[in-house]
Amino acid sequence: MQQAQARTRDDATAETVLHVDGLRKTYGEGDDAVTAVDGVSLDVSRGEVVGVLGPNGAGKTTTIKSILGLVVPTDGTVEIAGVNAHERPREVYRHVGAMLEGARNVYWRLTVRENLDYFAALAANPASRERQDRLLSQFGLAEKADDPVNDLSRGQKQKVSLACTLARGTDVVFLDEPTLGLDVEASLELRRELRRLAEEESITVVLSSHDMDVVEAVCDRVVILSNGSVIADDPVDDLVGVFEMQAYRVEVAGALSDATRETLETRFDAADWTTRGDRTAFDVTLSGDASLYDVLDVLRNAGLTLSDVDSHDPDLEDVFLSVTEDAR
């Protein structure tokens, strides 16, 4: 997985463009009440790219829709560019753009360029032809600019939706699974464009995705939700650094007894077992006082011969799995 390059920010002078305080959303009443968002608070600075992660049902979508006013929260305050999002929604919409359901964001009977013009005009912030042409070129849509969106492929429709969201040059952009349906080249272009928007135009991006490569490559910071609450909120590099885990792929000659396998699974979280001929391979993740030598001692005591060992550093996916597992 691609590691994010270190990015620094002067928090003492950074301007807060998104402020969320005590956001809560409960459905139903009494004993039947279900809390989807439970006291979420966060501040995001201008030009910051923040990833919002969490397992299915963690409250990510409800949180984002509550921030945008698409869902009326039960409690809490949201301010975007200094404007109360729930008291003055019309004014807020001039400062925010969002792509929440991919290709469903655009009008299929309009051409690609007509969609760009239309959505930019809705926000009273017309997109310049230069910005439009750059986005069309980056997403491989230049030759399709005058084609109705209905005639495009699913992936191309996703690209049009992204271009319409980014064309407006708003203060804050919310993107939900933006790489869904994109080819590799378009996904890489999106990563570059998001970093350019943040670094050159100081646009704030809030990104929700299951694609850890994208999150780790473009985000300055990651917020992890579980059961409607924030369980982690840290810079990407710091979050990965907290988990000083050592992960290894171990291969041995010979078959493991059930007792040896159980010991490895219990003590070292051994997983992903594979057998090829007379060789058995598995993954172990070590933390705390455990070391590779402890694993080798177990294998040696079981009369097994080590064939190969490969190591890798923890990445954002490792951290995400560990944090959400601990929160259960």
What descriptors fit this protein?
alpha/beta; 11 helices; six-stranded mixed sheet; four-stranded antiparallel sheet; 328 residues; Alpha-Beta Plaits
Short description:
With 328 residues, this protein is α/β, with parallel strands linked by helices.
Give a verbal description of the structure:
By secondary structure, the protein is of the alpha/beta class. It has 2 domains: 16-236, Rossmann fold, CATH 3.40.50; 243-326, ACT-like. Chain A, domain 2 (Alpha-Beta Plaits). It contains 11 helices and 14 strands. It has helices at residues 60-68, 89-93, 112-122, 129-138, 154-167, 184-201, 212-218, 236-242, 258-268, 292-301, 316-326; strands at residues 16-27, 34-45, 49-53, 75-80, 83-84, 96-99, 172-176, 204-208, 221-226, 229-235, 246-253, 271-276, 279-286, 305-312. It has a 6-stranded mixed sheet with strand order 6-7-8-3-9-10, sandwiched between helices. The chain has a 4-stranded antiparallel sheet with strand order 2-1-4-5. A 4-stranded antiparallel sheet has the order 12-13-11-14, covered by helices on one side. β12 and β13 (279-286) form a beta hairpin.
Biggest sheet architecture:
6 strands, mixed
The CATH homologous superfamily of the largest domain: P-loop containing nucleotide triphosphate hydrolases
Structural class: alpha/beta
Which ranges are low-confidence, i.e. pLDDT below 50, for 5 or more consecutive residues? 1-6, 8-12
Shape: globular
Percent in strands? 25-35%
CATH class of the largest domain: Alpha Beta
| Element-level helix/strand string | EEEHEEHEHHHEHEHEEHEHEEHEH
- In the CATH hierarchy, the third-tier topology of the largest domain is known as Rossmann fold
Rg (CA only): 23 Å
